[in-house]
Amino acid sequence: MTAYPPFTRTPAYLSLMLHADAMKHKHLRDLFRHDPDRGENFVARAAGLYFDYSKHIIADTTLRLLEKLADERQLDQHIAAMFRGDKINSTEDRAVLHVALRAPREAEIMVDGQNVVPEVHAVLDKMGHFAERVRSGEWRGHTGKRIKNIVNIGIGGSDLGPVMAYEALKPYTARDMVFRFVSNVDGSDFAEAVRDLDASETLFIVASKTFTTLETMANADLARQWVLAALTAPEAIAKHFVAVSTNEKAVREFGIDTANMFGFWDWVGGRYSMDSAIGLSTMLAIGPDHFRAMLDGFHAMDEHFRTAPYLENLPVIMGLLTVWYVNFFGVSSIAVLPYDQYLKRFPAYLQQLTMESNGKSVTLAGERVDYATGPVYWGEPGTNGQHSFHQLIHQGTAVIPCDFIGFKHTHNPLGSHHAFLQANMLAQAEALAFGKTYEQLRLEGVSEAMIPHRLFEGNRPSSMILAEQLTPATLGSLIALYEHSVFTQGVIWGINSFDQWGVELGKVLAKRIIPELQNPAAALNHDSSTNTLIRFLRG
Ligand code: G6Q
Predict the structure, then answer these.
(1) From the CB of residue 170, how many other CB atoms can be counted at a distance below 10 Å?
(2) Separation of alpha carbons 109 and 117, rounded Å
(3) Residue 459 Cβ < 6 Å to ligand 1
(4) CA distance readout (Å), 328 to 77, 360, 443
(5) Where would a tag sit more exposed on the chain, N or C end, judged by fewer CB atoms within 10 A?
(6) Beta bridge partners of 466
(7) Mind listing the pLDDT tens digit for each residue in 245-275?
(8) CA dist., res. 352 & res. 346, Å (int)
């Protein structure tokens, strides 16, 4: 890459500053009035997704300037570098190749002189073979009983993706099996997950890239004790535990046969790993064919991101719109509102993907940024959110751009439910954009005293992401859309979206506090608040 100016020194940034001053005085009502075809023009389609971004406070000029910004920040070269396997995660000296996890068998992606695609497919084949054996009942537990229960033990990137995908793809899952997910180092999480399960019918997947994570190893130990308490024989472990990890040695030391270990690589970040072997629970739930369909959905979006011009490119448009609001409108949070109950864990999954990736305040060169970076992502499925927090989005003082996600067809066509759901989604976006004016309220006979309370200013931006149905392929495209949008934002801001040093300090401090809690006589040398709290908790 040739030298290029920092974000706030690009000519496009300065033009966008001036342009934003003008756009802040525009209302979506006027933008739609002046361009009646806006709802058809500000639309992009790719990989089975329809993306309407017409209800954003933008004009053609905004898009041209954002395109220029992407150019000046050399986004295309960064995209090429990621797909090429360059070590763009410089603080960990790693390539960033989640796109290789869904590359077709014949593709070639080189890391350190070696094509990684054959290894990816070898692991997928091994996972497929294993999943078929468990699902068909060929793989038996220690006492000869069929495995009916799968418990995934993992945390963060080794949990949030698998839980989300299991919930999202429930209509495709083996309904005669039970799937549970244990993440927290709170005994209650494990206790509740196994309380009604029979150990002889239960398989644990210990999912941990490093196989050293405190929470996961503590839960894996509990699981081992639980299995041994029921089945007594140490050989039972081999039938009731498999591992997903990059750390073969630690897996062996735990007592899991490495023949039952599914590997992945250091170029897969935790929060980008749900389509690697970390997705073993997903494959067990939906079967290998649906899992591969999900990978195809990811890949379709990858190809679109890699090749489409900026202003036809869904992840690029989405990422640039985020930059537009964060850096030129002072927006600090984005709501994700899936109108599909199966996506109930999608906002939680996105919290990690977006905030662990772009919650950074130094550039790749180690300089402190003098502009805002990653916004807070949060949300809940509609229509539930409408009866709780939407009030603030409609009438609060903060502008919170929303991502609405909806589907033409439901998996459960019951009564008029789906029409009610879709109508509510469209109505929310309409109300946010256009609001309700003083004149409208007056014509409705609302009293002068009540008008300020019932006024909807509108001009609240939102995107609408639609697809035919929530299928494995659609889910893959949707996740890849957000992954690449996050990357686009990171490139514009000049930060490393793929490390997570900010989670380290707390872990180190916790290790020091554990013995202090367990030993009431231990001397305490923290601040007076932490010391007093430790004394309170050790009782
Ligand atoms: C994700 C993070 C983090 C990680 C967990 C679990 O990008 O690195 O959420 O996934 O800390 O790590 P292990 O898989 O190594 O147990």
Answers:
(1) 16
(2) 6
(3) no
(4) 25, 18, 36
(5) C
(6) 50, 406
(7) 999 999 999 999 999 999 999 999 999 999 9
(8) 10
